[in-house]
What we know:
Elements: E1 7-9, E2 31-33, E3 54-58, E4 61-64, E5 67-70, E6 86-91, H1 99-109, E7 117-122, E8 125-133, E9 136-141, H2 144-153, E10 164-169, E11 187-192, H3 202-205, E12 210-214, E13 236-240, E14 264-268, H4 285-288, E15 291-295
Parallel strand pairs: 1-2, 2-3, 3-6, 6-7, 9-10, 10-11, 11-12, 12-13, 13-14, 14-15
Antiparallel strand pairs: 4-5, 7-8, 8-9
Helix pairs in contact: 1-2
Amino acid sequence: MLISLKNLYLNDCKDLMELPSDIGELAQLEALDIRGSGVNNIPPHIEILTHLRCLLVSFTKLRNGNATQEVAFGYNMISKLSRLEELVIDMKSPEQWSNEVVVNIIKEVASLKELKILKFCISNKVVDFIKLVNMNLHICLFEATSLQSFMKRSSGRNIQSIRFFQIFIGCQNLEHPEIPDFVKYERYIKYCNGVGSNFPTLDVLARANAFELVNHHKDIKHLSDFGIASMKKVLGCLVESCDAIETIVGTVDSAEPVLPNLEDLYIKNLPRLESIFPCLTLISPKSIDLAMRLLSEDGRMSFRNPAALDPFRLPSFAKNI
């Protein structure tokens, strides 16, 4: 029975409700695409497909009266596909989407040493993805907890061994770097629409040499609330539209210089910003010599209390003001 079949596509076969149990006899099968079919789970017998490298499936929730029931998706089957390189999960509407689904799947794929691509789609539009090729890591996730789960459980993907990464958290419709000349940074993080001062994985932040904080609101008043000790390698930093920030570097307990390697700082649309560095003695000489870019929405420097900038003594190298 089709013993040489390598690729099987069963797209939009809506009356196909399940895969036959003898699909395991397709010993050479490498790609299986059942998106849009009536199969709403990962059937247990596909674990026999030891050569499977690419799996594309749909996930739905069934309505029973006024209740919505989640189909048994078969998450535990994923980790048994040891050669899997690409997994695509497609949902047909936003109502079927939940961070719990993402976290459960990430827990399973994190142990797959061959996995290179994980994508979550709504109506065929990619909303979350993880891509790792030749030690280049590209991540775009809606929730910070998803990144934390992936990094915690990942097998053979120690962040110290990854030379290049771009990580976007909560940046739907903002999946592009705002920081100028971003290509010069090998390890980049953009964190959008967050709440609270706890960055999900400080070991990742400790490896980054570029960091953007965008639309972070309410309870963070200082960039240093994220843990200055974890930002020693940051060369470029952009902070934009964070309504509560009053000071870039607040009071720190350590006598060591903060942001010792910072070269470029971009500040945009911080309406409550009063000061940059309240204690100049804690700023490294390299950071003092940085080319400062201070931008409000109209492109001019604008502070609620300009006198609060005196400790920084903005020198003539403050460009593009």
